[in-house]
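Q: Could you fold this chain for me?
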Amino acid sequence: MDGFEALQRIREVSAVPVIMVTVRGEEPDLVRGLEQGADDYIAKPFSPRELLSRIKAVLRRAETLGATQARIIVDEGLTIDTAKREVIVRGQVVKLRPTEYRLLYHLVQNAGWVMTHEMLLSKVWGPEYRDEAQYLRLYITYLRQKIEVDPAHPKYILTERGVGYRFKDLNSPAGSRPLRDKAE
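A: Sure. Below is the predicted structure, expressed as structure tokens.
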């Protein structure tokens, strides 16, 4: 069994953090690993310090998400249960990959505020990923496909061109808040 098949089997039964360590360093392999639910992907050769740093970052993110327990009712079409790590879209539980869930979690926790690309990359993937905008674009697309009625015209995850993304304001159906200096 190769790493991709192992990851697929793990994701069928668990949301445990996974870092793929592989000799396959080409972009299609990296994208495939992340799409299948890896929390991080590192190609050989790498330094032990880099691996340790990535492990700490993944564990930090997993720990942060486990601490909050609340049910967020966005509207009649979307509910997020952080205690169960479930997302309910139009009455159906939607399965999100761990990275998709972390991204949605951080957007919702800062609903109404614009989060810059760098903020989201740092919070979801770790500070060493601040310049990896393609990760963010890819996962925003995945999330929109799973939670939006019309992903081409999103009502939950809104793009702020050249700056970042904003989750709709939970306090006001049409309202929004300005760009934040830092995310909570």
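A (continued): The mean pLDDT is 84.
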